[in-house]
Amino acid sequence: MSIKQKIISKEHKIIRPPPECMTFVVHTGKVGRFVKDLETDMRIMLAPYTYDKLRVNKKNQIRDFVEAAGDLEATMMFLLRCQQDKLVLSLNRFPHGPTLHFNIKKFATMADVRAGNKDSATINRTHPGEAFPILEGFGDSNEDQTMVSMFQGLFPSFDPLTADLGLMKRAVYISKSADGNISIRHYLVEKTNPREVAMNEAIDKAMSTNLKNYNSMTEYLDEIHKDQPKKDKKISTIKLKELGPRIDIVLDYTELNLFGGMKMQEQIKKRQMKRALEEKAAKEEKEKAKH
């Protein structure tokens, strides 16, 4: 049995129509236990649009996953690997690319987050519910817009104005800072019952109210009743509790094809040089026309 067949045999057959996005989260080569834990956590983060039953062995190469992608109808792949003294995270789109290569600056697994944060949360690893992406800090450059497109491609199309937010149990927050560092965070979304919100507000108000300003408790309760929201007015709050993993990365370079081809930075430079030559030629022609 080929490596490709072994990969496919480990994954459940897709009986329902395939979703618009499915992502491999895998590694190649020799990696440590913590990197394998990160791989598992990233699969949970992207669930249900990933292959949680996929098994990877040290003999697997990138080409094995590329070949298996067509049969399993995978659209994206996150690849972890060690290169020299760096831990690299690559993100590619099947079947033609592009491929983004990031250097991982630091990371924390879900277990690390639980151990270090008393306000962290846990989820059902088998049925974690759906997640939606939140992207912030990306600019209008070709490089940034490519990253936005690739990160959005990890999730189904999402319109906050029409989506059923009741089904969204988790959020994946991906932000880019001014210095180019990219942070990936994973949160549980908790919605508070409107009645519970109103009750908590009433309790907070009661705790902070000087009852000496009222002639009787009845007078105070009458005022509280007047301040209560109407029944048709819904008040709700959303709490985010961190689940992990935490991943801090920086873009190294972008390949226009699937693990190959010209680098985007080289293409941009080539276009800039071409534009500069064209402008120079046009300027020279204009000068000649004057004489």
Describe the structure in your own words.
- Residues 270-291 are annotated as: Disordered.
- The protein has 291 residues and is of the alpha+beta class.
- The chain is 35% helix and 28% strand.
- Strands 1, 2, 3, 4, 5, 6, 7, 8, 9 and 10 form a 10-stranded mixed beta sheet that branches.
- A hairpin with a 4-residue loop joins strand 6 (168-176) and strand 7 (181-192).
- Helix 1 (3-9) crosses helix 3.
- The longest helix is centred in the last third of the chain and has 27 residues, at 264-290.
- The protein is globular, with a radius of gyration of 26 Å.
The CATH topology of the largest domain? Rossmann fold
Average per-residue pLDDT, rounded, comes to: 81
Number of helices: 8
Number of strands: 10
- Indicate the low-confidence ranges by residue numbers: 8-17
What is the CA–CA distance across the termini? 76 Å
The helix content is: 25-40%
Going by CATH, the homologous superfamily of the largest domain would be: Brix domain
Please compute the radius of gyration using only Cα atoms: 26 Å
The shape, in one word, is: globular
Query: How many distinct folded domains?
Result: 2
Instruction: Label the structural class.
Output: alpha+beta
Name the beta content range: 25-35%
Secondary-structure arrangement, i.e. CATH architecture of the largest domain: 3-Layer(aba) Sandwich
User: What is the N-to-C succession of helices and strands?
Assistant: HEHHEEEHEHEEHHEEEH
CATH class of the largest domain: Alpha Beta
Largest sheet: 10 strands, mixed
